[in-house]
Amino acid sequence: MDTYYLMQIINGLSAGMIYALIAIGFTLIFGVLNVVNFAHGEMYTIGAFGGLVCITALNWPLALVIIAALAAGGLAGIVLERLAFKPFRRFQDEASLKSRAMREATLLSSLAVSIIVKELIQYFFGAEMQSIPTQYLLNDPIPVGPLSFSNGQFLILGSSILMLGGLQYVLYRTRIGLSIRAISNNPLGAKYVGLSVDRTIIATFAVGSMMGGAAGILVGLYYGAIFPSMGFAPSIKAFVAMVMGGLSSIPGAVVCALILGVCEALATDFMAQGWSDMVAYAFLILTLIFFPQGIFGARRERV
């Protein structure tokens, strides 16, 4: 394979891993509540700015900065759930859970929180880009034969694989993970057998938002700058990956996020860098036309 295309594939896999971390949060929350969280991109931004505060104000080492971004994202996810989603869960009957009006209300509520969070970040940090100090940047070259990578690419890939593996362990080997899967499958049945639906939903938001926060700081350390609206474009692409994967399939969302990242990277050879963002929208349109249930979606559920 040509060296250039191999480099582009590696770049695409790195970007796809970031989309996958964000898409998992979308998928987890949709699986449990059957609603789309449009404030999830702000969890990505909060993780980035939380890491920036730890860098500039506290001079923490890199490992602690990433842990702080995880914590910031998880805490923000819990607050988001309490403000935007909890008030609409007063009625737990089957009709209310499946109500279209309830889904639309929570969608608009999360969108409102997204706007408020973005404005608050702009108020406290300003609307301009914030630079990451040079000593924290993840762009040191690492030659591998005829190829040249950066340490940031390896860190993004390695951290993403580690977090995805940890998520699979949580979902299939822990009590809270089994609760998440049970409520995702049948919320009323899980409630009747004694599972704490409220506690499980909080845990779902925390886990999904932690991954989004980690993705935000990793991207900031790789590119060297962050800004208040940085979560918009990645969250749109992660949403497309979730739709392609079938809305509630975590493996499907991860696979489709990787496909999307690689296709975007390869598309820059045929179009300008800015136009490569159109790849995600093209995939979304094709999925809705030819795979209305998603590529990995269940037959009973349409996108």
UniProtKB/TrEMBL annotation:
Which keywords label this protein?
Amino-acid transport, Cell inner membrane, Cell membrane, Membrane, Transmembrane, Transmembrane helix, Transport
The record lists the membrane-crossing segments as: 12-36, 66-85, 105-125, 154-172, 201-226, 238-267, 279-298
Places the protein is found: Cell membrane
* Alphabetized CDD domains for the sequence: TM_PBP1_LivH_like
Bilayer topology annotation: Multi-pass membrane protein
Show the Pfam families listed in the entry: BPD_transp_2
Q: Which family does it belong to?
A: Belongs to the binding-protein-dependent transport system permease family. LivHM subfamily.
Name-wise, this protein is: Branched-chain amino acid ABC transporter permease
- What lineage is this protein's organism placed in? Bacteria, Pseudomonadati, Thermodesulfobacteriota, Desulfovibrionia, Desulfovibrionales
